[in-house]
Write a structure and sequence with these properties.
binds flavin-adenine dinucleotide; single chain; FAD/NAD(P)-binding domain; 11 helices; 400 residues; five-stranded parallel beta sheet; 35% helix; alpha/beta
Length: 400
Amino acid sequence: MKKVIVIGAGYGGLRAIENLVNNKDIELYLFDQNSYHYLQTEAYGYIAGRFDLHDVALDLKNWCNGFKRPITFIQEKVEFINSSQQTVKTHSSNFDYDYLIIATGARTNFFNFISGMDKYGFGVKKLFRSHNFRTSFEQLLYEKLENESMRGKNINLAIGGAGLSGVEIAAEMCDVIKRHSKSIADAAREVNIHLIDASDTILPGMSKYIINNTQKRLDALGVNTMTKAFIERVDSNMVFFKDGRKLEYTFMIFTGGILANNIDSDIEFQKNRINQYVCDATQRIAENVFTVGDCCEIKDKNKNILPPTAQIAEKSAEYVAKSIYGMILNHEPECFDAKVDGLFVALGGNYAVGEVFGFIKTKGYIAYILKKIITKSYYLGLKLRLNTGFNKRTTSSKGI
Ligand SMILES: Cc1cc2nc3c(=O)[nH]c(=O)nc-3n(C[C@H](O)[C@H](O)[C@H](O)COP(=O)(O)OP(=O)(O)OC[C@H]3O[C@@H](n4cnc5c(N)ncnc54)[C@H](O)[C@@H]3O)c2cc1C
C-alpha cells in the first residue's frame, strides 16, 4: 500500500483525490487548515449578495466520507515538509508519505510597494475576507436605508485590479445594485463602482474578443473603468495614483495579484517572484513531491507561464494523479501538456462572455448558460458526494 498525502483542499487538491481514490493500492490523506472547500470562482456572487454561504463553502469531512473507500481528512495546517525523510509536520504530529501533492493555492498579493493596501484593501481569495467585505457593505447599505441623514452620501467601491476576478466582481456588484435600486431605492442608487488597472486595458493578456466585449458590458452597466492608473498608495478614504490623480473611496477590494502559499522545507525549493514553486515538466520539485494549481508555475508547451485558474489547477491534478498511478507501476511520468481550453467571464446577472478552443466565441445569455453548466456540474458533483457522506455519518452516529 502506498501513502499519498494531498495538502490543500482547493480545486487542485479535490480533483487529485477524485482521480486517485479508485486505486486500491493507495491510502489517501487530505490536509487543509479549513473545514470547508471554498469555491473561489463563485466569490464574485457571494460578495455581491447573489449567492449565500452554502453556495461557496462545502464541508470537507462530509465530502471525504462520500467515497466508497476511506479518505482521511485532517483539518490542520501543514507547517513543514521533510522531503528527504518523506514526512510532513503539522502542529500536532508528523505523517509519512510515499507521494506528496502540494496544492496549497495562493493568497492576495497586497504588494508592499502600494502603501496602505494591506491595511485598507479587502481580498477575496479567502472566505473570511470575502465575508468581511460582504457584511461591511451590507451594513452600510442598511444604515443608509434606515437613516435619513445618510441619503445623498455616495458609496464609492474601488476595485484594484481588472483581471478575471476584479472584472467579475465589478460587473456583479453593478448588476445586483441596479436590481436593488428598485426595492431599496436611493440607498442602492448612490453606489458607484470604479475598476482600476495599471495596464492599458482591462483583462490584460486575454483575447481582443474577450476584452472588447467585457468592456462594452462594463460600460453598459455603468462601471467606471480606469486603465493606465497605477495605484501608488491608499489611506483610509483616498486612492492616490502615480500620475497625481486621486479617488475618494468607501470600500477598496484588491484583486491585483497573487502570492503563492508555500511550506517551509528541509530543501530550499526554487520559487519565482510570486512565490510559486518552480517545478519540472512533470510538476515535480523532488522525486516524489508534486505540485498542482496556483501554488506552482505551470507552463504550456511553448514555455509560456499560464495564468492561475481553477481549470489549470484541476488539469494539473488529473495529470499528477495519472503520473502517480504510473510511478507505482515503475513507469516514469511523461511531461505535462498544459493548455487552456477556454474561458468564460461572468459579467453580472444572466450575462457572460466566453471563448473556447480559440474559435468558438460567445456572449450574452448563451455564454451565461454555458458558464452556468460548467459551474453547476462542478458544484453538483461535490454536492452529491457531500450528501452521501453526510447520510453515512448521520446513519452511523444513530447506530443504525
Ligand atoms: C473572484 C474569482 C473568480 C475566479 N474565476 C475563475 C474562473 O471563472 N475560472 C477559473 O478557472 N478560475 C477562476 N478563478 C481562479 C481560481 O479560483 C483559482 O485559480 C483556484 O482556486 C486555484 O485552485 P488551487 O487548488 O490551486 O488553490 P485554492 O483553491 O486556493 O486552494 C488551496 C487550499 O490549500 C489550503 N492550504 C494552503 N496552505 C495550506 C497548508 N500549509 N496546510 C493545509 N492547507 C493549506 C487552503 O486552505 C485552500 O483550501 C477565480 C478566482 C477568484 C478569486
